[in-house]
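Reagents: none. Just compute today. INPP5B PH domain-containing protein.
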Amino acid sequence: MDQSVAIQETLEREENCIMAVQCDVLFDDTTESRLLGLVESANEHRIFIYTHRRMAITADDVLLEAIIPISVDFAVVTVSSPEELVVVADTRVRISYKDEELDLKLPFGSNSRLFLSEVNKAWTQVLDYQ
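Predicted 3D structure written out:
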């Protein structure tokens, strides 16, 4: 199911959700499920972070928690332990913006890889404009 539809319903007319991916946010000893949406508007990209009640089908299923601009202050890196590198596993990434960091676990699969690829493309566009 394409959860970007639920995100798109929450956006302004000039905003477009390129794609969405469900993930876990890693805290000290806990994880919480979130829905990430890569959103484009007026030549800028942002990652919208949503809490959700269940599989997000409509805007009623999500609640916007945070927005991270993709700018020169933005970075996303893959974080893996040696054990995770030897087996097929979920992808752990760290998103940072200015002084804030967010550790995520994206499910193994092509949707997560495509999401990260699209985020990388958006960040590369920012760097090209500099």
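Residues 110-129 form the longest helix (20 residues).
Action item: order primers for follow-up constructs.
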